[in-house]
Queue: 2 jobs
Job 1
Amino acid sequence: MNKNALALLALALVAGLARAGTVQLTITDKDGKPAPDVVVLVQQTVKAVPSPAAKPVVITQEGLRFIPFLTVVPVGSTLRFINKDGYDHHVRATASGPLGSIAPAKTFELRLDADPIASARGGTDPYPSGPAKKPSGTSTADIKMDQAGPIGLSCHIHGSMRGQVYVADTPWFGKTDAKGVATIEGVPDGAAQLTLWHPDQLQDQPAVPVQVSATPVSANTQLNFVPRRRR
Ligand SMILES: [Cu+2]
């Protein structure tokens, strides 16, 4: 092999390593209905450490809900909690799973004051826990997610408020939308396992093997349970 051929081969190898594709997974529940809010993690034979999200990832408290219900971030990222209601909320890291059997990947607890603008508009707590206090303006808080795993979210003041965070230890992850579809781009070529996680699961879900290439790959799978419906 001459020098030029060697150089071409080296280029081809580098290009081959850098090649990536798109993975699309469609998930249904045990009844065959679309399963939203399922965490999908791409696990490859060679583990890759994710880079933290470039900017804080926002979770809003609005209308007595955590929005979005489920947030997936790479480990090392910062979550920004913002209260947009005209009344106070808590954010508390809680155990995950229907049996509360999975300790939160990070323990934290904070109180977010009413959003001053929403408060001035007359937003009042439908379930007040005490006399209204003057907003101090600290309706936002940042918390770094330095451990991988699930974290449940709740609010002391409003027992019905539930949210979920999943801190991913892989750079390639997604979550299913209302149609049960998760699309993950930029996955390096080669054999990979898609692992699933849902806050209501009682047992691990079977991993889905895929072969990633330049051509987008689609796969389907079914959960072995029916998630609770959310309000
Ligand atoms: Cu609340």
Note: The radius of gyration is 21 Å.
Job 2
Amino acid sequence: MIQNLYTSANGVEVDILRLDTIDSLAPGNKWFKLVPNLVAAQHANATRLISFGGAYSNHLHALAALGHVKGFETIGCVRADRGDPLTPTLLDAKSWGMTLHYLSRSDYRRRNEREFITEILAQYPNSYLIPEGGANKIGAGGCGKIVDLIPNRGSDYTALVLACGTGTTLAGIASMIADGVRVIGVPVLKAEKFMARDISAMLAVLGADRDNWQLDHRFHGGAYACLPQAVLEHMQTFECYHGILLDPVYTAKASYAVQSMVDNQEFPAGSRILLVHTGGLQGRRGFNL
Ligand SMILES: Cc1ncc(COP(=O)(O)O)c(C=O)c1O
């Protein structure tokens, strides 16, 4: 699961944790967020799973797959117009039986409002609701189990680096990682105003008030799913050199961040860095790569 990538001229060793290789239709961080949510849904005797995402959402894709395997009906509230052509992601989701519930951009913005959620749930009785990105306590707690895959709970490493969308995965990892290890999140969207606050709140919910983490906002490239030329070139070189595919939305930005920090000698000589590959490869189909 952990592979060595390279050692820099000044002696910084970079490894990668391959969550993308989890043998499931829901690989990456999705496995850790969703499996415990499905167990909770079973305990609640729910028959339907409902969540939110975009037309290329890794989260909806994984939810549809796992729901299908575990015998749940799934409802994907998608930020898209009914007339839009189906993306490969939504085609897969439909093939696994997901009902697509289309939401306009303005409705989608209401996805966390209690009244709006109540209206949607009324249309799908007996549902278990999972927030966008699997960003609930159970999802974050599940991501804490990623640390079980790292020898000595990560204590051989100076820092872990991972991409952040909601920050849920980071919160889970930061809650469980060994003392003394930094967890560096690379937001893939402009999130200066809210992500750190959301992560602190999630850590508080997990009962893990830790300050072992930080966000590095330099690498979002302007917007979610925006792929700057430099990141694209890094991704292509990385894939050729290491034979490991990245996804353009999340892991390419995290890997680019690690490479930039190493090149700028931001890690002291002798540091050991673990890049977390959080999956998302199905989302490559949204790009002309
Ligand atoms: C492949 C991939 N990596 C990273 C993330 C970011 O995870 P989080 O929202 O927990 O920060 C996501 C989104 O869930 C993702 O799909």
Note: Residues 29-43 form the longest helix (15 residues).
